[in-house]
Design goal:
It is globular, with a radius of gyration of 19 Å. It is built from twelve helices and 14 strands. The protein starts with 6 loop residues before the first strand and ends with a helix. Strand 11, helix 7 and strand 12 form a beta-alpha-beta unit. The protein has an eight-stranded parallel barrel with strand order 3-4-5-10-11-12-13-14, surrounded by five helices. A two-stranded antiparallel ribbon has the order 1-2. It has 364 residues and is α/β, with parallel strands linked by helices. 51% of the residues are buried. Helix 6 runs parallel beside helix 7 and helix 7 packs parallel to helix 8. The structure holds flavin mononucleotide (FMN). The site of flavin mononucleotide has 22 residues, from helix 10.
């Protein structure tokens, strides 16, 4: 079965085609430094063909959640080196998701006086602060054109830092309502400079970030995550014509880079929109079918077997099953995820999901 066979994404050789989707777990402490818990969590999951790390902030003002790790300071780089070394020693591959949260943040979380976005439009709803209280998402500072260029450089430095830490590459987070996605959608981007207005202009930031990152660390170590029509964090893409035009412009801008992969989160990865984006970019494709139901073994098998994807991203099943590739290959029982512990601070619900061998040893 093809899902369990090796694949090559750019410079990344994968032992199988099951990819751990990026999963924010908020256990990196106030300073965002990967600690023993993160090292163990990722080491346990090295049997997956590729690990994409949790969303990691390139610059302080891009931090969206308390406990989220960064890749800006020397201490963070040293922490990630321990993660990368542990994954490699266990035979795995790991790339870092570079996530600038844009307007999805709060000064208390980012520990900066301002948060930033393409336009001064607040994300809807509230966010949780480190002390457990809730606060409205603030109206962000609209990046000036010069500051947009600086934001691109922030991604570039972060990518260099990730590679310096020994990670195998990076994934630019262009999905789920964070900074790159905020630029793409007309409701969160009302700019009048070259980064707003037409689909081509709204796609420009994502193209520039990804191009600059690829130039810095190699296109064959660079990927991007997209989530067209996901409709989260107030980034709404409900005009089908505009969505198609915007993602076509983006895909055409990304195509010449020669990316290692494109990772798309969408409820229908086999549908016309996603396959159009895939074809236009022309890079190896990781499909992730979305939040409504957990990705299943059967779905993953079919996506790869039928040629709809080169690899499959898996979120919650990879949280609950450190040995997911082994379990799926042998079609065994699975642990159930415990969503109440997705965002926590301890080992509980993080590094204490048993492998199949451990479960069976306990039962016996
Ligand atoms: C706890 C949790 C944290 C997540 N964090 C991120 C993240 O940091 N970056 C991202 O792009 N997606 C994130 N996602 C989305 C997942 O990568 C994935 O797309 C989603 O879980 C759907 O796949 P699944 O059905 O296999 O779980 C997160 C999802 C969950 C459940």
């Amino acid at each position: 079965m093809k899902l369990f066979e090796p694949a090559v994404l750019g410079a990344l050789p994968l032992s199988n085609r099951i990819v751990m989707a990026p999963l924010t777990r908020t256990r990196a402490g106030e300073l965002g430094i990967p600690n023993d818990l993160l090292v163990e969590h990722y080491r346990q999951r090295a049997g997956l063909g590729l690990i994409v790390t949790e969303g990691t902030w390139p610059v302080q003002e891009g931090r969206s959640y308390p406990g989220q790790p960064g890749i800006e300071t020397d201490e963070q780089i040293a922490g990630w080196r321990r993660v990368a070394d542990a994954v490699h020693a266990a035979g795995g591959r790991i790339v870092m998701q570079l996530m600038h949260g844009g307007r999805v943040s709060h000064p208390d979380i980012a520990q900066t006086p301002r948060i930033v976005a393409p336009s001064a439009i607040a994300a809807p709803g509230q966010t949780h602060l480190a002390d457990g209280s809730k606060a409205d998402m603030p109206v962000p500072h609209e990046l000036t054109t010069a500051e947009v260029h600086e934001a691109v450089q922030g991604f570039v430095q972060a990518a260099r830092n990730a590679v310096a830490a020994g990670l195998d590459g990076v994934e630019v987070h262009g999905a789920n309502g964070y900074l790159v996605h905020e630029f793409l959608a007309p409701g969160s981007n009302t700019r009048t400079d070259q980064y707003g207005g037409s689909p081509e202009n709204r796609a420009r930031f994502g193209i520039e970030v990804t191009t600059a990152v690829a130039e810095a660390i190699g296109a064959d170590r660079t990927g991007i995550r997209l989530s067209p029509e996901h409709g989260v964090q107030g980034v709404i893409e409900d005009d089908a014509e505009d969505v198609r035009a915007t993602y076509t412009a983006l895909a055409e801008g990304l195509a010449p880079i020669g990316l290692a992969f494109v990772d798309i989160l969408h409820a229908d990865p086999t549908g016309d929109l996603v396959q159009h984006i895939r074809r236009t970019i022309g890079a190896p494709f990781i499909a992730n079918s979305g939040f409504s139901a957990l990705t299943t073994r059967e779905e993953a098998l079919a996506l790869v077997e039928d040629g709809h994807a080169d690899a499959v991203g898996v979120g919650r099943a990879a949280i609950a099953n450190p040995d997911l590739a082994h379990r799926w290959e042998h079609d065994t029982e699975l642990n159930e995820p415990r969503p109440e512990l997705f965002y926590g601070q301890s080992a509980e619900g993080y590094t204490d999901y048993p492998t199949l061998a451990e479960s069976r040893a306990t039962v016996a």
